[in-house]
Design goal:
By secondary structure, the protein is α/β, with parallel strands linked by helices. About 40% of the residues lie in helices and about 20% in strands.
């Protein structure tokens, strides 16, 4: 059976945009995030806020190639970008004063992928 990749058109467009940014800017970060998002949904990364809080530093930009869940406490002001967020995670992120940026906007803000940490 041939693997076809994600069927969600938004995800497919995002993956193509990341691959293009990776080649144009010679940035391995976007290529790695794109390959992680191409995985089947059952193998995609799922990260809780407690894990983000544990590994991220203050005022850092964090990318989760998958979904962010709301278990745990976020105690740092971060910029978090992911493909999906649970509603509980969004509420907790907004209460701490952290920012949520869609992956497509983060590619435009930081095309080279400098000072961005992948968690998951």
């Amino acid at each position: 059976m041939k693997r076809t990749g994600p069927s969600n058109p938004l995800l497919r467009n995002l993956i193509e945009e990341m691959k293009k940014a990776s080649l144009d800017q010679k940035s391995a970060l976007w290529g790695r995030v794109a390959s992680d998002l191409e995985r089947p949904s059952r193998q995609r990364r799922i990260v809780n806020l407690s894990k983000i809080s544990q590994y991220a530093k203050d005022n850092e930009t964090v990318v989760v190639p998958g979904k962010v869940l709301g278990t745990g406490v976020l105690d740092r002001k971060l910029t978090i970008s992911a493909f999906q967020f649970s509603s509980g995670a969004m509420d907790k992120i907004k209460k701490t004063g952290a920012k949520v940026i869609p992956l497509s906007e983060l590619i435009k803000e930081s095309p080279k992928g400098k000072r961005i940490r992948i968690i998951g």
